[in-house]
Fold this sequence. Notes:
By secondary structure, this protein is an alpha/beta fold. The protein is built from 11 helices and 14 strands.
Amino acid sequence: MIPRIAILCAVLALTAASRSYNGYKVYNVNQQNEQQMATIRQLELSNPHLDFWHLTKRVGDSAKVMVAPEHQQEFINALKSHGITFTELIHNVESTIDHPSPKRKLSRSENILTTYLSHEAINSYLDELATKYASSVKVQEIGTSHEGRSMKTITINEKKGNAVIFVDAGIHAREWIAPSTALYAINQLVEHADKHQDILANLTWIILPVVNPDGYAYSHSDERMWRKTRKPSGKKCFGTDANRNFDFHWGEVGASASSCSDTFRGETAFSEPETQHVRDALLSLKGKCKFYLTLHSYGNYLLYPWGWTSALPETVDDLDEVAQAGASAIKQATGGRYEVGSSTNVLYEAAGGSDDWAFAVAEVPISITMELPGGGSGGFNPPPSHIEESVKESWIGIQAMALKVAQKY
């Protein structure tokens, strides 16, 4: 039995290590014309201390930017000098954050619909399923992260001749709702398989719940809004934006060369062990994998290639058909609206993404990024009470897209 004082010390240590966002504000910045939109994009690329939560490539849309207290006046002055209007969306970011409890192992009594699980707990859940459902489930380590955390995939319904769907989540550390959605998909496909034979009969699912386990753990223990990996970059900074690190038009546009930036592309393409492991897993499935789905948040989007150019792939009709199936299913079931289109044309140019690479290099014919709903004004920090509603709605879209892929391939 662990003494109470030891537990108390662990809680106090976690609390002390956790970064405070007291005084941080989020601004809603209006993009009223092309010039203002270009100015805002330039601010994003040239100022690593500005944390853009939401930014699209559409006049009339608003950008959402988190700014530390010491940079707020400078940011406001920059906006005013260009005639850009704005409002304060979140007065104090700290007030929106529910700091997680200390790490713990998953027990069967825990509910994935109400808890953001630690990486350790996620892996424990996968191992538990592999033991209980040995005839239909296989769990394997595809590699380890920079800090040595095990990156595990779960393979469901592996049968010769099946088309493969590869799903990953958590490439950006702070997007906690993405691993939760992956876990719910796993739960449904394994523990409720009898209800989902339409998307299991001829499909094998491979799911990697957390691509970036070091960053994910760090966002639980130290810095809630951490986005990148955790390998040192440059002399003073840590981490690379793993979704700018894939070797397809790497670093050409929409990615920063500054190691301190949240969109740092990495010293080289595939500089991160985490992106290397995803690369190797997908290349091993070349010719078999028909659908790559990567889960992100936030924004209610279903996006397909390209992210590096506004041009569209020759097979855009196939990509759009699958994405539209997901959006339509969600709208019909819940009324939720997902915008569908290519990444560049709906949001912004960003080269080096996993979806572009999977489509172009791993030759996966359907490659889609699903940007999940946010937590109201809190964006990346939907409270645990919102998990169930979000993952159940997202699962409706995932099922519909999987069914369409099964019909096509």
